[in-house]
Write a structure and sequence with these properties.
By secondary structure, the protein is α/β, with parallel strands linked by helices. It has eight helices and ten strands. The strands form two sheets. The chain has a six-stranded mixed beta sheet. The radius of gyration is 18 Å and the shape is globular.
C-alpha cells in the first residue's frame, strides 16, 4: 500500500516521529510532508498543493497527543467532527478512512510496543474516538505520541510509532475481518480497543457518548467515509445513556437496515 506522512514543523512529537521514520526507511516512495500549520488546521492537503500525494492510498498525520491527566500514551484515531468544528475540519463531516487499515495498525502498534518492556510498561496503547480536523479526501488517520513534553521527545516511543507506520508496506487484511463503525463509550474506546485487537471486527469511525444524540446523518457519514462496505454497528450499550437514547440508536439502525451487536456479546 502506498502511504505518506504529514506533520507540522513546530509539533515536537510529529517531528520526532518523522525523524525516526527517516532513520528506519528514508525512501522517495514514502512522501514525508512538513506542514507549516498544525495538522488539524491543514485543510489544503491535496494532490494540487502536494503533487507527491498522487497515487497515495493512505495518509498518516504524526502528531502530539494531549490529555488533562498527562498519561503517557500511543494513540490512533480517524479524523472528523460529529458536531462542531472547534479544532479544524467542518461541522458534521468526517474524513475517509479504512476499517481494515486501522485494525491492522492498532494491532501492530500494540505488538511493536510490547517488544520493549520499558515502553510497554510506561505507555498506554489506545484508540480514540473520531475527532478534530482537518477535513480531506485522502483516507487517513492520526497516530500520536503523548501526553506531555517528555513523551513528545521520547525517541524510543517515537520509533515504535515509526515502525508501525512502516509496517503498512506489508499490509494484508484477514479474510474474516468484518468492517464496522462503533457507537458509544468514552473518548479512549476502552471496550472497542479489546475488540479491535482480539476479534474479527474491524472498526473505522467511532461515535463517542459525548457526541450524542446519535442521528441518521452521523451514521451515514461514518458509512460513507469508510473505504470498506460497513457490515455492522458495534454498540457500547452500557455507555449509551438513558433508555430513550438507546432506543433512538436502535431505531436509526433498524431504519437504515444496518445490523448491530453489543460489545459485551462480541466473541474475543
Amino acid at each position: 500500500m502506498r502511504f505518506a506522512i504529514a506533520y507540522c514543523k513546530d509539533n515536537i512529537a510529529g517531528k520526532n516521529i518523522a525523524d525516526r521514520f527517516r532513520e528506519l526507511a528514508f525512501s522517495p516512495q514514502v512522501p514525508i510532508i512538513e506542514l507549516k500549520k498544525e495538522t488539524i488546521y491543514s485543510e489544503d492537503i491535496n494532490v494540487k498543493n502536494y503533487p507527491e500525494l498522487r497515487g497515495i492510498e493512505f495518509l498518516f498525520f504524526a502528531s502530539t497527543h494531549r490529555s488533562k491527566k498527562g498519561d503517557p500514551s500511543l494513540c490512533l484515531h480517524a479524523a472528523g467532527n460529529w458536531r462542531g468544528a472547534d479544532l479544524g475540519g467542518q461541522p458534521g463531516k468526517v474524513c475517509p478512512t479504512s476499517a481494515f487499515v486501522l485494525k491492522y495498525l492498532f494491532k501492530k502498534l500494540e505488538e511493536n510496543a510490547k517488544k520493549d518492556k520499558e515502553i510497554s510498561e510506561k505507555y498506554k496503547i489506545s484508540m480514540e474516538a473520531t475527532h478534530h480536523g482537518p477535513l480531506l479526501d485522502i483516507p487517513s488517520c492520526f497516530i500520536e505520541l503523548g501526553s506531555l513534553e517528555n513523551e513528545w521527545k521520547d525517541e524510543k516511543a517515537a520509533k515504535v510509532i515509526a515502525e508501525t507506520i512502516l509496517s503498512l508496506q506489508d499490509f494484508k487484511q484477514e479474510r474474516d475481518w468484518i468492517p464496522c463503525i462503533a457507537i458509544g463509550g468514552g473518548h479512549y474506546c476502552l471496550n472497542f480497543n479489546d475488540i479491535q485487537l482480539n476479534s474479527k471486527y474491524a472498526i473505522s469511525h467511532v461515535i463517542p457518548d459525548y457526541s450524542f444524540p446519535v442521528t441518521e446523518t452521523m451514521i451515514r457519514e461514518a458509512e460513507k467515509k469508510t473505504k470498506e462496505q460497513i457490515k455492522l454497528a458495534l454498540i457500547d450499550w452500557k455507555s449509551c445513556g438513558k433508555s430513550e437514547e438507546r432506543q433512538n440508536i436502535l431505531d436509526i439502525l433498524d431504519g437504515i437496515g444496518l445490523k448491530y451487536e453489543r460489545t459485551n456479546k462480541v466473541e474475543k
